[in-house]
Amino acid sequence: MVGVDRPGTETVTELLAIYLRELDSSVDKLAHGQEWFTSRLPRWVLANRSVRVGLNKGASGCVVKIVADATLQHDHFETILLETDDDLRALCAPWERGFPLAALSRMNDFIGLAELSVTEVGNPLAPPALYDPTFTGWGTFEHARHFFSATQAREDALNFWNSAVSGLPGSDSFVHEASTVFSRFESLLGRRAFVERRLHRFINEYGQLLLPSCRRYLFELPLRLCGEERKADFVLEREEGLPALLVELENPNHRVLKGRGEFTHAVHHAREQIAEWVKFVDENAGQNAGGDLGFLKGPKERLVVIGRDSDRQRLLNSKYQDTSVWTYDVLLDEAKRRWTDIIRSQREMLDLPPIALF
Q: Are residues 142 and 41 part of one domain?
């Protein structure tokens, strides 16, 4: 393959240069104050990149490959002429594309793939047999113009960032993926026979999405005191300046309030469990609040999640002095409200139009 300098070439590279600058700039804005989440972004985002653009004859079809390259001082662009199927195969390696070069200019869309891996079936703990951290895309040049527009760069930045923060895979729009999780969670709550432990594991899987805002969360954290051990359901390390939050999850089928509005025995028991966790931490801080658990020293907030809604206003009016009590419906609604506020603010920051949310 040889380098080319022909009509359309500069247009493609300029398009990509604008897209990548806009993408990085938008992610920078979204990451302000939460830079620790940038490690979860695709490797080619917020990086210096080698960008190869393959064009067919006439420049009506193109293949784009973007690779993070720490040896570069800035993005480097190269254009090549795709003359044979072998040229196409070499550019797309290590992945085999199921179309010939002749089909490139007849495609109905531009398709992009990133962070692809091949893992051993039946062994989820095995390292990937093949992993490609690059971005590869192909299609017609006209479709590429929309795929790599400045507006799309801002949309992509929002999806990349929120997927990184929430732990979602990022293979679809963040709003669609989050809506699917919320709907699934609501369905699980409706199954009275659903085992409580399985519900806890679901929340653990999507903790950054469902739990109150936090820098990180720990599931079933062991706490020890005088030879005894307890496991805290969830311990949340929150943003700088906010106290840790200890969360006890109880059965969603438990009653929350009695007839006169007092909390039931199940709620009292849950509150006592959190009080015991606090005792373990405070009386054995050396073991339970050392190292990266130092955030557990000092004041701690407490939250019990139990039951379903019956009379939310009475629930909100009934509060322990030291412990908040939510139902699972409140947990879900608070998650939707929080992410709605976040996304609306982000879209306004990036000058994107409002969209329907949760």
A: yes
Average the pLDDT over 86-98 and give the result: 89
pLDDT given at position 330: 93
pLDDT band at 213 (very low <50, low <70, confident <90, very high): very high
Is residue 150 in some structural domain?
A: yes
Shared domain for 150 and 216, answered yes or no, is no
3 state SS of 238: coil
The whole-number average pLDDT for the span 183-199 is 81
- Supply the angle between the helices 9-31 and 328-349 in degrees, to the nearest 10: 130
Domain count, the chain: 2
Task: Give the sign of the dihedral formed by CA 131, CA 134, CA 140, CA 142.
Answer: positive
pLDDT of amino acid 319:
64
Beta strands in 244-283 (DSSP E): 244-249
Collapsed DSSP state (helix, strand, coil) of residue 37: helix
**Burial class, 299, CB count within 10 angstroms (exposed 0-12 / middle 13-18 / buried 19+):** exposed
> Contact 327/256 with Cβ under 8 angstroms?
yes
Q: Which tokens go with 2?
A: 């040889």
Over residues 111-134, the pLDDT tens digits come to 998 877 666 666 656 666 667 789
pTM as predicted? 0.87
Instruction: Decide if pLDDT at 150 tops 90.
Output: yes
Number of H helices, E strands in the chain: 11, 10
Q: Per the domain annotation, does 189 fall within a domain? A: no
- pLDDT value for 131: 72
For residue 106, being part of any structural domain is answered with yes
On whether both 234 and 98 belong to a single domain, the answer is no
Range of the domain at 220: 194-335
The answer, yes or no, to whether the previous bond of 94 is cis (omega within 30 of 0) is: yes
The CATH number covering residue 258 comes to 3.40.1350
Give phi and psi for 47, each to the nearest 5: -145, 165
| 83/144 same-domain check | yes
- Can you give the pLDDT at residue 304? 94
Place of tokens 């019990």: 304
Which DSSP helix (H) or strand (E) runs through 346? helix 328-349
- Domain match, 87 and 224 both: no
